[in-house]
């Protein structure tokens, strides 16, 4: 933080300062990439391997790579300073909202602001595509993810779209 930022800090909301710290600390570059390229596929496979033992098959709501290649989906990859892929996520845009999908950050990169920066990037993509809100479904055992979403302004909501009530799922929404 620069001297000007520190002097003005008392004028800025604490949550905004936390957001700046999360964004500045990530060191990640984020860009739209194809979901079917090898590094993206590896991240998606890691996400699936992480979630498979946590939930029964009927509670797995990840979309196939072919869906991530559709024109109404923005798929992004976060890369560290060396260019290594460390995280990914997508926003699937329908007329009413964007749905956050396939959000994943490698364990060694968690807690460094990568997930927040990736989520902010995807929210910007949703807004640019005309979405009025962002929605998501995540598993009940992903406590860190739920906390991240809450800090980012997401609120719990009822199932949306084609989702049904699932005791292993949490549904959240953030209006823009």
UniProtKB/TrEMBL annotation:
CDD domains named among the record's database cross-references: NAT_SF
SUPFAM superfamilies the record matches: Acyl-CoA N-acyltransferases (Nat)
N-acetyltransferase domain residues: 30-176
A GO term, aspect molecular function: acyltransferase activity, transferring groups other than amino-acyl groups
Keyword Acyltransferase: yes
Alphabetic keyword roster: Acyltransferase, Transferase
Protein name, entry field: GNAT family N-acetyltransferase
Species annotation: Chromobacterium alticapitis
């Amino acid at each position: 933080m620069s001297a000007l930022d520190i002097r003005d800090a008392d004028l800025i909301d604490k949550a905004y300062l936390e957001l700046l710290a999360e964004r500045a600390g990530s060191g990640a570059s984020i860009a739209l990439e194809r979901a079917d390229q090898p590094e993206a596929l590896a991240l998606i496979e890691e996400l699936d391997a992480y979630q498979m033992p946590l939930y029964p098959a009927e509670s797995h709501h990840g979309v196939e790579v072919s869906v991530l290649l559709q024109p109404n989906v923005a798929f992004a990859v976060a890369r560290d300073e060396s260019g290594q892929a460390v995280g990914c996520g997508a926003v699937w845009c329908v007329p009413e909202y964007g749905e956050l999908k396939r959000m994943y950050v490698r364990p060694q990169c968690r807690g460094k602001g990568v997930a927040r920066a990736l989520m902010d990037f995807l929210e910007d993509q949703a807004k640019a595509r005309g979405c009025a809100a962002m929605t998501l479904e995540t598993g009940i055992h992903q406590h860190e993810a739920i906390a991240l979403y809450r800090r980012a302004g997401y609120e719990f909501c009822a199932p949306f779209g084609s989702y049904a009530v699932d005791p292993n799922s949490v549904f959240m929404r953030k209006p823009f």
